[in-house]
TrEMBL record:
PANTHER family: GLUTAMINE AMIDOTRANSFERASE DUG3-RELATED
Domain of life: Bacteria
Keywords: Glutamine amidotransferase, Transferase
Record-given protein name: Class II glutamine amidotransferase
Length: 276
């Protein structure tokens, strides 16, 4: 499948997030510990927000993250307080730039790990449910982008948890009509630049891995000799497909069937259930 991270906190260089950690995304692109595949080399992408524009910047490439020199250059110069980064392992759709995450619509970013099982059978029904005004904006061929546009259709910009619940509910409904037992496997991150929502859910109740960082102030007390922790603000929140390092107690698993909402360093964990 894929691996991703979502960061919100004081502005940091992309390099600090995607290269420097012991088990960074770039390391995971070659040697994922918890992913469905050890190698995630079918492209990557990074999206970030800054003070220059309400629309986030996006850089996507079909090159493997471990070998892309442009990513290295970018990472050493771009600084942001909200970052979404993704490395891709395709579940069958083409390796092309428009299929790389994160996807963008206006001020919104979206990325997904997992798959919609039986997508080829469901695709026509799902696409026809997308708002006709949004349909021309779809650029790629992935199930992840279709799920994004379904969420936009159902009101992502007004109420993300409700919109994602309706989108997932529709996929499961369509899946049942096609005899697909477990249509949805997902961890999702989406942001408008001010808030971050992450979701962990699968129809079968065995979702892909997802973790959040422990409170930085507590970690700083436990590990006073660790210089990395002194560089992070107390409001720092990171949600990842798998931990970025081996520091004991630094990572907590996000529960199955849940939505984690983060704003200004505050977290709210909610149950997530698809809506009919």
């Amino acid at each position: 499948m894929c691996r991703w991270l979502a960061y919100t906190g004081s502005p940091v260089l992309l390099d600090d997030l995607i290269y420097k950690p012991t088990n960074s995304l770039v390391v995971q692109s070659l040697h994922s510990r918890l992913g469905a595949e050890a190698t995630n080399g079918d492209g990557f992408g990074v999206g970030w927000y800054d003070e220059h524009s309400p629309t986030p910047g996006v850089f996507r490439s079909i090159e493997p993250a471990w070998s892309d020199r442009n990513l290295r250059e970018l990472a050493e110069h771009v600084r942001s307080g909200v970052v979404l980064a993704h490395i891709r392992a395709t579940s069958g759709t083409a390796v092309q730039q428009t299929n790389c995450h994160p996807f963008r619509h206006g001020r919104w970013l979206w990325m997904h790990n997992g798959l919609l099982a039986g997508f080829s059978a469901m695709k026509r029904d799902l696409v026809l449910a997308i708002d006709p005004e949004l349909f021309p904006l779809i650029e790629g061929s992935t199930d992840s982008e279709i799920l994004f546009y379904l969420a936009l259709t159902f009101g992502l910009e007004d109420d993300p948890p409700a919109a994602v619940a309706r989108a997932v509910g529709l996929v499961e409904q369509v899946g049942r009509t096609h005899g697909i037992a477990f249509p949805v496997q997902m961890t999702v991150a989406t942001s408008d630049g001010a808030r971050l929502w992450t979701f962990r859910y699968s129809t079968e109740g065995q979702s892909r891995s997802l973790f959040r960082n422990a409170d930085v102030a507590v970690l700083r007390e436990q590990y006073p000799e660790n210089p990395v922790l002194h560089d992070l603000a107390d409001s720092t929140r990171i949600v990842v497909s798998e931990p970025l390092g081996d520091l004991k107690g630094a990572w907590h698993e996000v529960p199955e069937s849940s939505c984690l909402v983060i704003e200004d360093g505050r977290e709210e964990l909610q149950p997530f259930r698809p809506a009919a």
